[in-house]
Design a protein that fits this description.
Protein name: AP-1 complex subunit gamma
Largest sheet: 5 strands, antiparallel
Family: Belongs to the adaptor complexes large subunit family.
Strand content: 5-15%
Membrane topology: Peripheral membrane protein
Helix content: 40-55%
Low-confidence stretches: 591-678
Structural class: alpha+beta
Subcellular location: Cytoplasmic vesicle membrane; Endomembrane system; Golgi apparatus
Strand order of the largest sheet: 3-4-5-8-7
Number of helices: 33
InterPro entries: Adaptor_Complx_Large_Subunit, AP1_complex_gsu, ARM-like, ARM-type_fold, Clathrin/coatomer_adapt-like_N, Clathrin_a/b/g-adaptin_app_Ig, Clathrin_app_Ig-like_sf, GAE_dom
């Protein structure tokens, strides 16, 4: 290929290359020829060569050697060369390169050029790659062009001013008077640029925002002219007059009317006119309506206008376009807390969106459906949500189950209904619920003393039907161990009488123990339930002893240890067995609304037994003269062992003492050490914003070790999801973050999220910690950072 081939020939040669290697060869030869011609002082084909180089750059190959050629061509008096030079500058230069400073003077000269197209090239280049220094130097020239008589230049200058304001915020005051004057223009392009510029100025400066609130009548007049104007071929798009300008004006009105009643009143009539007169059968009409709805909901509008906006969103939900349905549900999610009754009118349509084939629409419909649950519609909404749970995609089951638990806790009409609902969820999606669901449901069942017989019968039948749902099996085993005597009596008025024998119950528990689908935790529940039945039945104690002894040699260490201890109860301490395995007392709640798995109380498996604090209010302390150390069965009091967190969490059927010393461990059943109460660590509030409160408490473990507990709560009216905490410390400090207790914060402080952070400071440096708070509220992602310089108790 000849080095001087035209651009079209080079493109054709590159496209005809069969391999990438052949393509690189073509480009390398052409680039070598372009370099050689750039070195020539008298080069008549400079624009031709630079155009070819720009095409090479678009293909992703290096073209930086053409930067200086761009600078030379911009300084050329010929328009054809200036055009290619400015295009090359926009593509090959940016504000970080020194070569960009060389074109500042050329741009300034061209801004004063007599040819409007040369001025346009300079304006476009400055708006594309102008640095902060260039913007400061050329801002007066842009302000002068904003006042020019040529509409073509004013349009370009307005958009260039937007770039300057974004780069140098202080220059906004320079453009404010000219931007205000541009609103009197008739040219739509100039109006569009002026509105964009005013929007940028108002978003960046509160004082400018107050000044431009006086322009609301002018904007309303311009918008009315667009709405009632007849057909204009120049601006008509699918029957809507200049929808781009309409959308921009509506966005500016939203900014000007926010938190200002006078400005809002001035635009209420216009918004009602736009909402009722805009055609919703076309996409452009829906775009204008959507911006109208956002404006109505964001300003201090009248109640009737807000209802009209919600009804428009309701019509969007019936649209065949899934994108329109999606944005409608996002908008409804944001206002469901303030306009709950208006959104409730479209509950049926929202629930129907749960059946949509699109996963994104389903997720938004689920969020909105959960937000619409109230005390008056809890039964009907829960029926729909449970139907959805049975057929929803796997990635939505955990979210659906958590939302159902939360709604059931807040609005349950009765305890029996509450228990039935949670059991239905466990039966349908037991593998997708949080770990905290099991202890929280156990607490709920314990408190409903009149439903013990009903619950144990229902769980026994569920256990016989399906043992694959681990959470359901764990709760069933716990209930059978606690209330097995009620199950054997068969005197349950709420259910059909079923005769259950001792062998039937033990067969069911043995099936769980032997199933390959049972997790180690589930086997622990089943073994403990079997052991507790030894004090509730009379004829099969030897069979229970045999079952327990088998697992004394189990390969799972936790299960083996538990079985050995239970064997010791049978042999050495049989006289204490009845007292050790007596029924659990009623568990007291220490924070409202945590049966949905969002409890502020840490589960026992997340806290070392020797340091349990929050659990002290869960279970009443046992008398100190009772048997206290199940592990002490294998040795004297001086050989106290530290039980693992997993063992502590998987023996819920045992009486628990939550003292802080070795004698008060979770499994300290036979020890005789006096438990010493642990004073709670002082707490300090470190973050409080938009209803989210973050408190910090510390506990010193050693000279260099520190355990920090961060507790988050939400006192706002709307729920928070995807809540996460991230922490950073100095490099010499070691940091380990344990798993949080949850990722959702229900409204009104219904539950809390706790995060434990372990710090090791061997160099004894000044301890500081930066915490990033991230969460989603009403579909909007929010992120904030807090600096912690002092720690309580240190």
């Amino acid at each position: 290929m000849s080095p001087s081939v035209p651009l079209q020939e080079m493109i054709r040669a590159i496209r005809s290359a069969r391999t990438q290697c052949e393509e690189r060869g073509v480009i390398q030869r052409e680039c070598a020829a372009i370099r050689a011609q750039f070195r020539q002082s008298d080069n008549g084909g400079r624009s031709h060569n630079l155009a070819k180089l720009l095409y090479v750059h678009m293909l992703g190959y290096p073209a930086h050697f053409g930067q200086m050629e761009c600078v030379r061509m911009i300084a050329s008096p010929r328009y054809s060369e200036k055009r290619v030079g400015y295009l090359g500058a926009m593509m090959l230069l940016d504000e970080k390169q020194d070569a960009s400073l060389l074109i500042t003077n050329s741009i300034k000269n061209d801004l004063s050029h007599s040819n409007q197209y040369v001025q346009s090239l300079a304006l476009c280049t400055l708006a594309c790659m102008g640095s902060a220094e260039m913007c400061r130097d050329l801002a007066p020239e842009i302000d002068r062009l904003l006042r020019a008589s040529n509409s073509y230049i004013k349009k370009k200058a307005a958009l260039c001013a937007v770039h300057i304001v974004r780069k140098v915020n202080d220059l906004g005051e320079l453009f404010a008077p000219a931007a205000r004057a541009l609103l009197s223009e008739k040219n739509h392009g100039v109006l569009h640029g002026a509105v964009v510029l005013i929007t940028e100025l108002c978003e960046r400066n509160p004082e400018t925002l107050e000044r431009f609130r006086k322009t609301v009548p002018d904007l309303v007049q311009i918008m009315k002219g667009l709405v009632i104007s007849g057909y204009s071929p120049e601006h008509d798009v699918a029957g809507i007059s200049d929808p781009f300008l309409q959308v921009r004006i509506l966005r500016l009105l939203r900014i000007l009317g926010r938190n200002n009643e006078a400005a809002s009143d001035a635009m209420n009539d216009l918004l009602a006119q736009v909402a009722t007169n805009t055609d919703s059968t076309k996409t452009v009409g829906n775009a204008v309506l959507y911006e109208t709805v956002l404006t109505v909901l964001d300003i201090k509008s009248e109640s009737g206008l807000r209802v009209l906006a919600v009804n428009i969103l309701g019509r969007f939900l019936l649209n065949n376009d899934r994108n329109i349905r999606y944005i409608a549900m996002i908008s409804l999610q944001k206002i469901v807390g303030t306009d709950h009754n208006a959104v409730q009118r479209h509950r049926g349509t929202i629930v129907d969106c749960l059946k949509d084939q699109d996963a994104s629409v389903k997720r938004r419909a689920l969020d909105l459906s959960l937000a619409l649950v109230s005390a008056s519609n809890i039964r009907s909404m829960m029926k729909e949500l449970l139907i959805f749970l049975s057929s929803c995609p796997p990635e939505l089951r955990a979210q659906a189950a958590s939302g159902i638990f939360n709604a059931a806790e807040r609005y349950a009409p009765s305890q029996r209904w509450h228990i039935d609902t949670i059991l239905h969820v466990l039966t349908t999606a037991g593998g997708d619920v949080r770990d905290e669901t099991v202890p929280n449901l156990i607490q709920l069942i314990t408190n409903a003393s009149e439903l013990h017989c009903y619950t144990v019968h229902k769980l026994y039948r569920a256990l016989l039907t399906d043992i694959t749902q681990q959470s359901l099996v764990q709760v069933a085993c716990w209930c059978i161990g606690e209330y097995g005597d009620l199950l054997l009596r068969g005197e349950c008025q709420e259910t059909e009488p079923v005769q259950v024998t001792e062998d039937d119950v033990l067969d069911a528990l043995e099936t769980v123990l032997q199933s390959h689908m049972s997790s180690p935790t589930t086997r622990g529940f089943a073994l403990t339930a079997t052991m507790k039945l030894s004090t509730r039945i009379t004829d099969n104690v030897d069979r229970i002893r045999s079952i327990v002894s088998i697992y004394g040699s189990c390969i799972d260490v936790e299960l083996q240890q538990r079985a050995v201890e239970y064997n010791a109860l049978f042999k050495k301490y049989d006289h204490m067995r009845a007292a050790v395995l007596e029924r659990m007392p009623v568990i007291e709640k220490n924070s409202p609304g945590h049966t949905n798995g969002e409890s502020a109380v840490e589960t026992l498996k997340e806290i070392p037994p020797a340091k349990v604090k929050q659990g002290e209010s869960l279970l009443p302390p046992q008398p100190t003269n009772q048997v206290c150390d199940l592990l002490g069965l294998l040795g004297g009091p001086e050989e106290t062992l530290q039980p693992s967190p997993a063992l502590s969490s998987s023996a819920p059927g045992l009486p628990v003492n939550t003292g802080g010393t070795a004698g008060g461990d979770l499994l300290d059943l036979l020890g005789e050490l006096e438990p010493t109460p642990v004073a709670p660590a002082p707490a300090m509030s470190v973050y409080e914003k938009d209803g989210v409160t973050l408190t910090l408490s510390c506990e010193k473990q050693s000279d260099s070790g520190l355990t920090v507990t961060l507790t988050a709560s939400n006192t706002a009216d709307s729920d928070i999801s995807s809540f996460t905490l991230q922490a950073a410390v100095p490099k010499s400090v070691q940091l380990h973050m344990k798993a949080p207790s949850g990722d959702s914060l229900p409204a009104q402080g219904a539950a809390k999220v706790t995060q434990i952070v372990i710090l090791n400071n061997p160099n004894k440096v000044n301890l500081k910690m930066r915490v990033r708070v991230s969460y989603t509220r009403q579909g909007a992602a929010i992120q904030d950072t807090v600096q912690i310089d002092s720690f309580p108790g240190l």
